[in-house]
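Customer escalation, tier 2.

The customer says the design service returned an amino acid string that "doesn't look like it belongs to this structure." They asked us to rerun it and document both sides in this ticket. The original structure tokens are below, unchanged.
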């Protein structure tokens, strides 16, 4: 999942970015609301984490501007302000959740997972498709054949990112460009062909269990389960 982090404190931003990256997010960090608005016009993000106390335009105004420009991605506000009126104002400006500093990384990660599930109409941290299960909280995957015991599915970090995105979209197809964005931020070089590499690896792991990754010409890929046909 590609995440936009908007935070002007370099130390805070570095720590949060490291924690989110370790959790599998492709994180792009900017230090101002103005820069966030600029990149949001040319880049696609799955979720945003925005600090309120930004210079010049604050995080509340940024959130409102993003909503007014048509961005529907979930937004989580970070702030040192804990007054009720500030929380209410943040939510009224279009934020989906609100965390007061200082905070613990595990709670931030849990809230982000909940927001992503809500945005994709998923109801559980465990994503299921046929015999496949992906636990987004524990970051574990498992799969089973009929009449067999469930077994762990070993996935590399980018295989995980692609499969998680496909599962969140299933049964709808996933756009190839958005899959590419889920793999990396703008500070890492990766080619469009990389998606095909990870799709190929996932096919080799999933097809023996009856799960296919169908290519949709000119668009992307869709998960299909043989037993559902």
């Amino acid at each position: 999942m590609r995440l936009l982090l908007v935070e002007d404190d370099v130390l805070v931003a570095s720590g949060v970015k490291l924690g989110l990256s370790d959790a599998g997010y492709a994180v792009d960090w900017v230090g101002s609301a103005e820069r966030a608005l600029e990149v949001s016009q040319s880049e696609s993000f799955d979720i945003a984490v925005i600090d309120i106390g930004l210079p010049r335009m604050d995080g509340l105004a940024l959130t409102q501007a993003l909503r007014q420009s048509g961005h529907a991605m979930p937004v989580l506000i970070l702030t040192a302000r804990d007054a009720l009126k500030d929380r209410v104002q943040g939510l009224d400006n279009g934020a989906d959740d609100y965390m007061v500093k200082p905070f613990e990384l595990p709670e931030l990660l849990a809230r982000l997972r909940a927001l992503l599930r809500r945005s994709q109409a998923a109801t559980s941290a465990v994503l299921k498709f046929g015999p496949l299960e992906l636990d987004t909280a524990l970051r574990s995957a498992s799969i089973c054949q009929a009449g067999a015991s469930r077994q762990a599915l070993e996935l590399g970090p980018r295989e995980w990112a692609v499969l998680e995105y496909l599962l969140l979209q299933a049964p709808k197809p996933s756009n190839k460009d958005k899959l590419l964005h889920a793999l990396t931020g703008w500070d890492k070089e990766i080619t469009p062909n990389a998606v095909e590499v990870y799709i190929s690896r996932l096919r080799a792991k999933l097809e023996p269990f009856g799960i296919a990754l169908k290519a949709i010409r000119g668009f992307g890929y869709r998960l299909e389960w043989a037993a559902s046909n």
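Tier 2 assessment: The sequence is consistent with the input. The longest strand covers residues 211-216. DSSP finds eight helices and twelve strands in the chain. Sent an explanation to the customer and offered a walkthrough call.
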